[in-house]
Amino acid sequence: MSTRTLSRIGERGFILVMLAFFLLPFLWLASTAYKPSRDIFSIPPKLTFVPTFEQFATVFRLFDVWSLVSSSLLIAGGSVVLSLLLGVPAGYALARSTSRYAIAVAYFFMAIRMVPAVAALIPFYLMMRDIGLLGSWIAVVLINAMLNSAFVTWMMFSYFRSLPKELEEAALTDGCTLFGSFWRVALPAVRSGVVASTLFCLMFSWNDFLYPMFLTRLDSKPISVALLSAYGTKDITWGTLGALAHFSTIPIVLIVLFLNRYFVQGLTKGIH
Questions:
Q1: pLDDT per position as a tens digit, 184-212
Q2: What are the pLDDT digits (tens) for 27-37?
Q3: Does domain 63-267 fall into CATH 1.10.3720.10?
Q4: Where in the chain are the domains?
Q5: Which of 6, 95, 151, 163 has the fewest Cβ atoms within 10 angstroms?
Q6: Which SUPFAM superfamilies does this chain map to (predicted)?
């Protein structure tokens, strides 16, 4: 057997091991949603079982699932829209700035997104209480938009900076306004960057737990907070957790898989 063949077998074997390492816990959690309660902790574990929707029936009996999903969609969607409206123009303005501190400012925006969530929780909680938005999903949208728009600014700065200025100068020569050259030339040219930024913001907001936990009421909490209900004082109801996890993970996984190539490009593109 040639060295090249052995190397290929080794690479594929390593990939399979890593996939098993990361996916088996999720597969186990997903399978618990279809197991009868008595089989979840059976010793030895049952690899074959008769699927049941008992856990899903329990979830729909105990939770208003569609309200939880709707709240998640409102929070994630509102955060994404606000983040793009603020971050994309800011990234463009920063990329076209002639200041020598432009890159430093871009990294400052990135540093804002790195602030620990709990550090911003208390002042933002007090602020939302004083303006009367505490307990609504709008409060979560605003704080997520504040953090995510800083990330979008940093990311779009990189994309716009890599775009040749001559394209916009040609548009200006043809009679476009400054806004027209941005809207008709620059923005379509960095479409992949906008999609990648959207996906990052969507994942950040969809998976957010801390801010919705403390800033929303019971009727406006997203599904990420509802997952905590599976953790009791004495045990964890794994079947309920597995069933709820379906509604928490499937939408975001489908979106990321559908737009995967833009997501990978966004991960690999850096400031230069």
A1: 889 988 888 898 899 889 989 998 988 99
A2: 887 888 888 87
A3: yes
A4: 1-50, 63-267
A5: 6
A6: MetI-like
